[in-house]
Amino acid sequence: MDASWGPEPSPIALTIDSKHAPVSQYELVSPVFDSVVIRLQAPYSGNKFTIQASENPGTTPYIQSVKLNGQDHSQNWITFGDMTAGGELQFALGAEPDKSWGSTAQDAPPSLSKTEP
After folding, report:
1. What is the pTM of this model?
2. Residue 43, preceding bond cis, omega within 30 degrees?
3. Left (φ > 0), alpha (ψ -120 to 50) or beta: where does 77 sit?
4. Which of 27, 37, 58, 62 has an alpha carbon within 20 to 30 A of 97's alpha carbon?
5. All domains of the chain, ordered by start, with CATH?
């Protein structure tokens, strides 16, 4: 799948939904497609941001690990800046959940509140 972010609308339907819009954080969930390329246009600095899934994301829906630009990424979120700088987000998927990936307090997205629950 190929999509563009720029001044003109793209005919491709791709939704990247921020649950924390004021701070531009995007939660990572299992990809539906094998590969998605987002072509970036001015004012963004990167040329493209690619999201890659291991084979058969339909039958291996659970995230085992993630790499952002070739580096292990244990956080279960990325920022808008991560995407617009360009690069690659790689998902290793499996048939069973890996309950250790993204499960520490440091892996969770920053809180939108200043107080602890």
Report:
1. 0.78
2. yes
3. beta
4. 37
5. 2-98 (3.30.2080.10)
Closest CA to 58 of 86, 19, 36, 31: 31
Question: In the predicted model, is pLDDT for residue 18 greater than 70?
Answer: no
The per-residue DSSP string of 24-36 comes to TEEE----SSSEE
Q: Which two tokens stand for residue 114?
A: 């200043």
Q: For the residues of the chain, what is the DSSP string, one character each?
A: -EEEESSSPPSS------SBGGGTEEE----SSSEEEEEE-TT-S-SEEEEEE-S-TTT--EEEEEEETTEE--SSEEEHHHHHT-EEEEEEEESS--TTTT-SGGGSPPPSSSS--
pLDDT one-digit tens code per residue, 28-70: 888 888 888 998 888 888 889 999 998 777 888 899 999 999 9
